[in-house]
Each structure stands twice: as C-alpha cells, then as structure tokens.
Amino acid sequence: MSSNIKVQRICLYCEEEFTARTTKTKYCSHKCNSRHYKAKTKNIKIDNSNKETINKVLFPIEQLKAKEFLTVKDVATLLNSSTRTVYRLIEQGEIKAVNIAERKTLVKRTDLDSLFT
Question: Taking Cα atoms as reference points, which of 64, 62, 66 lies closest to residue 75?
Fold first, then answer.
C-alpha cells in the first residue's frame, strides 16, 4: 500500500522544512535521524558520567558525617584542605587530636564541630 500523502514538516535535527510521506516522519533523511540519535546518546552518556562524578564526590562526605572519630585525611576532606594544614592546626592546638599509634591520629567529631562555634 502506498500513500499519496504529502505533509510539510520540519526536521528535528537540522530544522529544515521537508515534505514527508507519512504523518509520523520526524527527520528529513536517514542521515539526520542517525546524527540526532548519536547526539542524544552522547548527551545521555555525558549526563550519566556527571551524575556519577557528583555521587563519588558527595558520597565520602556523607560517610564522614556519620563517623564519630576521624582520621587526619578525613578531617582534611571535610575542611577542604591538605593533611599538612590539619597537622599544623593540631600542633597549634586549634584541633584536639589523639595519637593512637605512631601512624594513627584520630580527631573526635565533636571537637571538630566545636572549632566552628
């Protein structure tokens, strides 16, 4: 069955006017259809990657908020600073910390919160 319908449409990709033979046609050519599909797929991949990156950045902070005792690295992540800055604050007495072992320094969460009050 062939159709004698001729409908003027605007291509979704190149936005040029064309004559369609069906009422469901959205693109002026197969080339525009393929390019729009690839662009849409690319944008979906980029959005997913951006969401994944945001989750990776925010997830550790959410975990750190739940901890009662924090390591120097955790404190540096929360303060958005370097570990050396945290050690300097500990040496100056700004942050109270306890050395559990030679290589393990812990900071109580409430002591870190009191730094800002």
Answer: 64
Residue 8 to residue 20: CA distance in whole angstroms: 6
Residue 2 pLDDT? 58
Predicted confidence (pLDDT) at residue 72 exceeds the cutoff of 90 = yes
Q: Is residue 111 within 8 Å of 101, Cβ to Cβ? A: no
Contacts of 108 (CB under 8 A, 6+ apart): 68, 69, 70, 96, 98
Amino acid, res. 36: H
pTM over 0.90: no
Collapse the DSSP code of 102 into the 3-class scheme (helix H, G, I; strand E, B; otherwise coil) and give the result. coil
DSSP designation for 12 = T
For residues 112 and 75, give the distance between their C-alpha atoms in angstroms, rounded to a whole number. 8
What's the burial of 87, exposed, middle or buried (CB within 10 Å: 0-12/13-18/19+)? middle
CA distances from 105 to 38, 51, 58 (A): 51, 34, 24
- Distance, in Å, from the CA atom of 17 to the CA atom of 32, rounded to the nearest integer, reads 13
